[in-house]
Amino acid sequence: MAKKLVEAITSMEEDFAQWYTDVVKKAELCDYTSVKGCMVIKPAGYAIWENIQKELDARFKATGVQNVYMPVFIPEGLLQKEKDHVEGFAPEVAWVTHGGLEKLQERLCVRPTSETLFCDFYAKDIQSHRDLPKVYNQWCSVVRWEKTTRPFLRSREFLWQEGHTAHATAEEAQERTIQMLNVYADFCEEVLAIPVIKGQKTDKEKFAGAEATYTIEALMHDGKALQSGTSHNFGDGFAKAFGIQYTDKENKLQYVHQTSWGMSTRIMGAIIMVHGDNSGLVLPPRIAPVQVDIIPIQQHKEGVLEKAQELKSVLDAAGLRVKIDDTDKSPGFKFAEQEMRGIPVRIECGPKDIEKGQVIVVRRDTREKYTVAFETLAEEVQKILDTMQKEMLERARAHRDSHTYEAADYETFKKTIEEKPGFVKAMWCGCKECEEKIKEDLQATSRCIPFEQENLSENCICCGKPAKKMVYWGRAY
Ligand SMILES: [Zn+2]
Questions:
Q1: Structure confidence by residue, pLDDT tens digits, 25-37
Q2: What is the pTM of this model?
Q3: Hey, which end of the chain has fewer CB within 10 Å, N or C?
Q4: How far away, in angstroms, is 85 Cα from ligand 1 center?
Q5: CATH number for domain 404-474, candidates 3.40.50.620, 3.40.50.720, 3.40.47.10, 3.30.110.30
């Protein structure tokens, strides 16, 4: 039985895309629905999202963020107020044309993002410098009419948070933009054990209507990049389009400066693709809804289930998230299931162990086994989880670093992109034409202009003109 469960997933070396789909399904994270391009997030998946929300929300609030809620609909006229923004989103917007049996006088779009709603609100709500800053966030879902969809990575409706702020000065807005990018980066590294590259998007890749977009980029196990969170500085562009003005201390009218920033359920895809293996999901302990799976061996024997329950109480009291698998499945099947679901450690507890006053603790990522005495269980399990969390980040970083290459000429660049999945660092002149040629030739995009710049060569990898910036390139999800 246990073997069958494991055999049901494709190995990642054989077909990474199929492996991903198999894990999503077998770990019961989400499933397809009768609504084309939309998914149901199942309890095991939603519990991870709830932990992401909890952690991020606390980090936001520590910087002064307040949560609000905006309507799900945007009147067409409102969406069209900022030209670049509407052009960027129009192709993937879903429209409501009827209310009940009546045709609407003005179409409503289902929000693809809420800049326009926040701007409309801020235009009314902000009058004076005393009303600033506004540092609002909302947790919600948005709709983008994608043609091809994949669980968590691209779906027509997805969950996210979107922060929208308004500030008195350009400096303050820029500071907030970078502050939130750092919140995302720290969250990814400290909680999800996913190392990220922080940088700025090129003009070609930036958000529709933004002055500057900053991003954190992560590398998946197959060497493809995933944009994992973005933070935008709008300058006063939206403020001018929507008339968001305040009177400053000298009683002069000024435009506000705005930012927005978001992280979505796409990040669930990153957790799967950075840490998973051929037995299924591997969850970093800090985000795992269940951290410890106690599996009783020969549970029909006297005292076994009682002992398991007692151990659970001890671990619960230590603040760990624990479950007992006392179903009538075989232990082998339960082990395979615990591995598939990515539960960080399992505790095997049978009559012989109980006699010796100990249990076997097995780590999900390395499968290392530890014999631990009852008396020190909570302490030891916590230690194992901490080590696992730390080593998962180190492993992910080592993988990323060993899949990050450099290229100083186009031949090397081309060969690297085609033959070695990963990031390629190369110099760029700053022209959109070179980005377009690279995309056309190699299906690779500029991932970001990293904050940590290096000088790899004097000239642009593509056109040979003097280089302005070093860019991370790669194929991406
Ligand atoms: Zn160039």
A1: 999 999 999 999 9
A2: 0.96
A3: N
A4: 27
A5: 3.30.110.30
